[in-house]
């Protein structure tokens, strides 16, 4: 396959790194040349995200995988143009839009700050039949378990339960809500498997593809982290506390409201990809693949640090 990875941010770099370990050809589409791409064995093509330039860049590819985020208008226009470019292209008839999300099948209104914008793109995808598409839901990327200096993803502060600077773990209510964690590497390998199966067999793609590296409660996750490092402490967080923070920041028109809108998901199972919905590792589409557990992921991180 020839895969076009659209965008060159932190998530894209992680996916590209893993994509390039496969037998597939990888093309990265970006508006500017990023220094971080110099070590990636992928062809880099520049785009202004117009239909004309996207079509030119996608014409020889088999699938487009977007990691684009940004302002609402850009997200909608860029994804609309990618969809149209795929439609006009000779062979790029598979598209993964930029969701990289929690369980949006059962919680389509989450996260609150982006759901309405993403729903516009989802409706465009649902209303057409020329391009096969699926949204990837992996829960949280496992990389957020790592301290800031080792986490290749963007720092998101209170949006995630762990403050690595103070070693404080936010416990939402009783901590019995479940969270699914999947590494970017496992997610990338699964994406390639999903695309390869559909391209080779002609099979349709479901609107949502659930992946689940490991699922556990916040309480169990805290105990696992604390067993490895007893310095970690639990900080109880109440529902009212988060609601008040959202209310105050909405009144102040503060963009940081998004952080607290993500925290509210910790009181629900929105971060949980149920076993019955998630693709099963090692069988079917994911034949030959296995998921990395939290313990294994942390062990690998510590091992690489020691080298």
Mean of pLDDT: 97
Number of strands: 14
What's the helical proportion of residues?
25-40%
Largest beta sheet: strand ordering: 3-2-1-4-5-6
Gap from first CA to last CA: 34 Å
Radius of gyration: 19 Å
Taken from the alpha-carbon principal axes, the silhouette is globular
Structural class: alpha/beta
Characterize the biggest β-sheet.
Answer: 6 strands, parallel
Unreliable runs: none
Order of helices and strands: EHEEHEHEHEEEEEEHEEHEHHH
| Percentage of residues in strands | 15-25%
Number of helices: 9
Keywords: NADP, Oxidoreductase, Signal
GO molecular function, one term: oxidoreductase activity
Protein name: NmrA-like domain-containing protein
InterPro entries: NAD(P)-bd_dom_sf (IPR036291), NmrA/Isoflavone_reductase-like (IPR051609)
What's the SSE blueprint?
Layout: E1 2-6, H1 10-19, E2 25-30, E3 43-46, H2 51-58, E4 63-66, H3 72-88, E5 94-96, H4 115-126, E6 132-133, E7 135-137, E8 140-141, E9 162-163, E10 168-172, E11 178-182, H5 184-201, E12 208-210, E13 214-217, H6 218-228, E14 233-237, H7 239-251, H8 257-263, H9 294-306
GO molecular function: oxidoreductase activity
Protein name: NmrA-like domain-containing protein
Organism: Penicillium cf. viridicatum
Give your account of this protein's structure.
The protein has nine helices and 14 strands. With 307 residues, the chain is of the alpha/beta class. The strands form four sheets. Strands 3-2-1-4-5-6 form a six-stranded parallel beta sheet, sandwiched between helices. GO terms for molecular function: oxidoreductase activity. This is NmrA-like domain-containing protein. Belongs to the NmrA-type oxidoreductase family. Isoflavone reductase subfamily.
């Amino acid at each position: 396959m020839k895969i076009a990875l659209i965008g060159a941010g932190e998530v894209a770099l992680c996916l590209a790194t893993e994509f390039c370990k496969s037998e597939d050809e990888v093309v990265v589409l970006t508006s500017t040349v990023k220094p971080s791409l110099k070590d990636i064995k992928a062809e880099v093509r520049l785009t202004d995200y117009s239909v004309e330039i996207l079509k030119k860049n996608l014409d020889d590819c088999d699938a487009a995988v977007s990691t684009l985020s940004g302002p609402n208008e850009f997200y909608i226009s860029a994804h609309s143009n990618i969809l149209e470019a795929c439609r006009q292209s000779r062979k790029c008839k598979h598209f993964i839009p930029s969701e990289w999300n929690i369980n949006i099948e059962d919680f389509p209104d989450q996260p609150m700050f982006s759901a309405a914008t993403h729903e516009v793109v989802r409706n465009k995808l649902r209303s057409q039949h020329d391009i096969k598409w699926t949204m990837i839901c992996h829960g949280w990327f496992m990389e957020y378990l790592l301290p800031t200096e080792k986490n290749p993803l963007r720092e998101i502060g209170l949006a995630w339960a762990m403050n690595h600077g103070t070693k404080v773990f936010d416990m939402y209510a009783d901590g019995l809500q479940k969270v699914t964690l999947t590494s970017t590497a496992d997610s990338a390998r699964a994406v390639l498997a999903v695309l390869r199966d559909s391209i080779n067999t002609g099979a349709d793609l479901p609107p949502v593809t659930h992946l689940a590296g490991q699922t556990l409660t916040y309480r169990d996750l805290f105990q696992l982290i604390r067993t490895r490092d007893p310095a970690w402490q639990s900080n109880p967080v109440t529902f009212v506390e988060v609601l008040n923070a959202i209310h105050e920041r909405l009144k102040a028109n503060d963009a940081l409201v998004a952080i607290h809108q993500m925290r509210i998901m910790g009181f629900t199972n929105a971060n949980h990809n149920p076993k019955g919905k998630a693709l099963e590792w090692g069988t079917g589409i994911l034949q030959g693949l296995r998921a990395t557990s939290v313990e294994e992921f942390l062990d690998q991180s510590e091992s690489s640090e020691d080298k």
